Amino acid sequence: KVDYDVCSNYGNWLYSAGIGNDPRDNRKFNMIKQGLDYDGNGDYVRLWVPELQGIKGADIHTPWALSSAALSQTGVTLGETYPQPVVTAPEWSRHIPNQRPGGSPHPRDRRGPAQHKNRGIDFYFSRKKDA
Predict the structure, then answer these.
(1) Exposure check for the chain: N or C terminus, fewer CB within 10 A?
(2) Is the pTM of this model over 0.70?
(3) Cβ neighbourhood burial of 96 (10 Å; 0-12, 13-18, 19+)
(4) What domains can you pick out in the chain, each with its CATH number?
(5) Residues annotated as binding site for FAD?
(6) What does the pLDDT look like over 87-122, one tens digit per residue?
């Protein structure tokens, strides 16, 4: 099933492009975070991007971050069977397991959207960068 709502989709595409309406300063759409929050196991990506079907779990959201050995096991060759990323935003690094301090698993690797418990209104309207 493909979701189609003209107004919602148009607004989301504008926001993704960085030209949408958002009152918060320096706000960016983080595709990696969204993928982990709403498609933690990568099933949706696997459905629409068959070139990445061999990549298991959340690693499918960041194939360029995998080791060459891991990529060869999945049959993916960056630049040949799947393109290299055009850009990699610095904000993505905290959502990539091998680029976080200690390589610890991401809290969202446990499936399902993140739960923001005990976070007051100040969290959502904070002026801190990348909060």
Answers:
(1) N
(2) no
(3) buried
(4) 28-98 (1.10.579.10)
(5) 3-5
(6) 888 888 888 876 544 444 444 444 444 444 444 445
